[in-house]
Amino acid sequence: MRIRTEEIQDHEAVYQLNVEAFGHREDEAQLIERIRASEGFIPELSIVAEMDHQLAGHILLSKASVVDEDKEHEVIVLAPIAVKPDFQKQGVGAQLIQEGIRKTKELGYGAIFLIGHASYYPKFGFVPARTYGFELKQFEVPDEVFMVCEITEGFLKDWSGELRYPDSFFS
Ligand SMILES: CC(C)(COP(=O)(O)OP(=O)(O)OC[C@H]1O[C@@H](n2cnc3c(N)ncnc32)[C@H](O)[C@@H]1OP(=O)(O)O)[C@@H](O)C(=O)NCCC(=O)NCCS
């Protein structure tokens, strides 16, 4: 398996793999296009996995903010992640998440938030974000699926607030 940064030539295949992984709906594929066109896009954090010379998976991490009274903290959100059905359950998703965390840390960000499967992400260090006092108002989701991973030790200490996804997340 080869994990690398997404290139322009991958865009079409990334679109198709997201459509396939999300049960033939285009919402996530279109979300990726909107994020790529937004100022929250960080090219190094759009990462693909190749297997057998084809695109097997993709992960996107991009900028969001946490509003804490009059302060605003820049954070990263993970969305979406997709692995082609034929390549699922072979560790592709895990490698993409680990590489996403590593690169996010390398770029100097302190935390990654996400909304996702409560049983999948804890093994990568994600915990329910509301236990740290973070709020989410833009989406109504159960507590256990709104998660955060502190990637720089101590980053989440002494503050909290409302996670705000940027406009690109809303079509
Ligand atoms: C969620 C998703 C990205 C996971 O990707 P994946 O490559 O299948 O993930 P992994 O292989 O790392 O892990 C999946 C499971 O396979 C298991 N697994 C990992 N490597 C394995 C291997 N070599 N052999 C067998 N099983 C393996 C893992 O333990 C994990 O088990 P779990 O369900 O108990 O956690 C993928 O299923 C997907 O694209 N789903 C549709 C889109 C989606 O829902 N995206 C996430 C939105 S939050």
Describe the structure.
It is a single chain. By secondary structure, the chain is of the alpha+beta class. It has one domain: Aminopeptidase. It contains 3 helices and 9 strands. It has helices at 11-21, 27-36, 92-106; strands spanning 2-5, 46-51, 54-68, 71-83, 111-115, 127-128, 134-136, 146-150, 161-164. Strands 1, 2, 3, 4, 5, 6, 7, 8 and 9 form a 9-stranded mixed beta sheet that branches. Helix 1 (11-21) runs antiparallel to helix 2 (27-36). It is globular. The structure holds coenzyme A.
Key terms:
GNAT_dom; acyltransferase activity; Aminopeptidase; 171 residues; binds coenzyme A; acyltransferase; alpha+beta; nine-stranded mixed beta sheet; globular; EC 2.3.1.-; 3 helices; 9 strands
Sheet with the most strands, sense and barrel status: 9 strands, mixed
User: What is the CATH C level class, in words?
Assistant: Alpha Beta
Overall mean confidence score, pLDDT: 97
Strand percentage lies at 25-35%
